[in-house]
Amino acid sequence: xxxxxxxxxxxxxxxxxxxxxxxxxxxxxxxxxxxxxxxxxxxxxxxxxxxxxxxxxxxxxxxxxxxxxxxxxxxxxxxxxxxxxxxxxxxxxxxxxxxxxxxxxxxxxxxxxxxxxxxxxxxxxxxxxxxxxxxxxxxxxxxxxxxxxxxxxxxxxxxxxxxxxxxxxxxxxxxxxxxxxxxxxxxxxxxxxxxxxxxxxxxxxxxxxxxxxxxxxxxxxxxxxxxxxxxxxxxxxxxxxxxxxxxxxxxxxxxxxxxxxxxxxxxxxxxxxxxxxxxxxxxxxxxxxx
Length: 290
What we know:
Helix 10 links the parallel strand 7 and strand 8 (264-269). The chain has one domain (10-289): Alpha/Beta hydrolase fold, catalytic domain (Rossmann fold). By secondary structure, the chain is α/β, with parallel strands linked by helices. It has helices spanning 52-56, 83-94, 108-118, 146-151, 155-166, 176-183, 186-192, 195-208, 214-222, 251-260, 277-289, and strands at residues 10-13, 19-26, 31-36, 59-64, 99-104, 122-128, 237-243, 264-269.
């Protein structure tokens, strides 16, 4: 094991020799919640402006960097269904048995993969602004370039197509929140306009892309390949929260996902956008505690 005493810099060495970095927030004795960060993002992703809120709610939030993001080593040829193996090694190291899972945006596939793999060890799952697997046709958001839509039907080529598309955001990742303020709806502009939220997003985007944007292209491409498990086999209670005015991941995608899950409670947040969680975190984490 490799430990760094500074906050957010903990890591373990996995069985195959890779380093997996992670951060912990909240109460070390609290209910464990595994955070599956967005894309791009990192272990620095949190859903509260005041990190002490997790402690007040009795939560122990554990957020690992996925391979290639932040300080985690890359994993060539990885698949969505490989993620639970990394997570299992981390949770065993931390002495965590039962836990809940939460994901934001592009982390949904990884959260559901953990639910499928760990079965009864997972109490509940929270999906925040997530999308379904490629088992069904996607209703594409208007902002997605046409060449990306076409390549999505040829997943082996998608990462190569995405690399030049995503390269510009790697130049100044700390400016991504400013860009999102211009592009997203009024609710998101209001949330990202708060200095604390903008600082959290700038930090996690910058850390996530510290190794460049190729990892982001790979991560996005994986979401359009078969995830490796059927959603029909997920038996845990999955809560979906989705803003009805989410312009990043349109609510229809959340509706499709909810219809594919056997045990699901959907929370459609009227007028809210993609980053609604900063105003609804207490509700989300209360549901995950059960």
